[in-house]
Specification:
185 residues; binds coenzyme A
Length: 185
């Protein structure tokens, strides 16, 4: 019975379409899918604050590092400065829509020493534009009411608030969150 139910239930894909695996170049940044060699840099970019804000379980960071090293991570992009060529942050995107056109949710972080330079605003704008070019109709994001920087980014890039709710993160932490949506470009 369980096997039959599994066969009849469509699997919710969490993959990115191949059409957005190309790199994105902006005025100051290069954004590209992770490669196995990025694993150590990505792990170093995740400090305790980022783990807490994302509400990850202790294992989450290690799992991400292993997935990148094994070339099994279609969900994250590294954000690198073009000059000098260093990793300054990471952008993640996941689909919960089997047709991969709706419900793409993004998340992101920037290393502490590179914050407040407008990098994430530049990265999110370019990333959302690329998703739109690839016929992905809706991009979503969700963050804590207290996360002022993310709200600023959402407004700058043209996201609109779609609702407020209590949201339970992976590690069980409950936050007051604001949901956002950006229409396709
Ligand atoms: C959120 C985060 C990615 C922003 O990255 P960033 O490159 O510093 O962002 P930007 O420089 O593009 O700044 C965007 C806006 O937020 C403001 N801002 C940035 N950090 C801020 C802070 N700590 N407090 C208040 N405003 C802040 C900037 O002044 C800018 O405002 P403006 O558009 O009015 O000029 C970064 O702070 C971070 O990694 N935080 C920890 C992880 C996190 O919160 N991720 C999001 C989870 S949903």
């Amino acid at each position: 019975m369980l096997a039959l139910r599994r066969m009849l239930t469509p699997r919710r894909k969490r993959v990115m379409p191949p059409s957005i695996t190309d790199e994105i170049v902006t005025e100051r940044l290069l954004i590209r899918p992770t490669r196995p060699g990025d694993s150590a840099d990505v792990l170093t970019s995740i400090d305790d604050e980022i783990e807490t804000i994302n509400g990850w379980r202790p294992q989450s960071k290690l799992d991400l590092g292993r997935a990148i090293a094994a070339d099994r991570d279609p969900w994250h992009w590294v954000i690198r400065l073009r000059e000098p060529d260093v990793l300054i942050g990471v952008l993640g995107a996941q689909f919960v829509d089997p047709l991969m056109i709706d419900g793409c949710e993004i998340g992101f972080w920037v290393l502490g020493q590179h914050r407040r330079n407008g990098y994430m605003t530049e990265a999110v704008a370019a990333f959302v534009e690329r998703l739109g070019v690839n016929d992905i109709t809706t991009v979503r994001a969700s963050t804590a009411v207290s996360n002022v920087a993310v709200h600023r980014i959402m407004h700058s890039v043209g996201f609109v608030e779609t609702g407020r709710r209590q949201r339970t993160l992976q590690n069980g932490t409950v936050i007051d969150a604001i949901d956002y949506k950006a229409p396709a470009r």
